[in-house]
Amino acid sequence: MGSFSLWHWLVVGIVILLLFGKGRFSDMMGDVAKGIKSFKKGMAEDDDASQRRIAEERKIEANPGARTIEAEERREP
Fold it and tell me: What is the pLDDT of residues 48-62, one digit of tens each?
């Protein structure tokens, strides 16, 4: 039960080649980078949308009659 035999190391080597061989590791890291960029872009879009919503709410609070005018404009084609 000492160290692994030659066959054990051969199997481990084959598994490692299957998992990480021929650029698969770099492809996986590229996919991870794309996912991170997409996540950051989504977070930025959410921040922009929330900032626009807050600005609209402030406009409505400043001019309470604006809500009824905007609602009427949306209803009419």
Answer: 888 888 888 887 777
Contact residues for 12 (Cβ-Cβ < 8 A; gap 6+): 4
Token representation of residue 61: 């609070």
d(CA 44, CA 25): 29
Structure tokens at 38: 């997409």
Whether the pTM exceeds 0.70: the reply is no
DSSP-assigned states of every residue in 1-58 = --S--HHHHHHHHHHHHHHHTTTHHHHHHHHHHHHHHHHHHHHHHHHHHHHHHHHHHH
Query: HSE on the CB side for 68, CA within 13 Å?
Result: 3
Residue type, 4: F
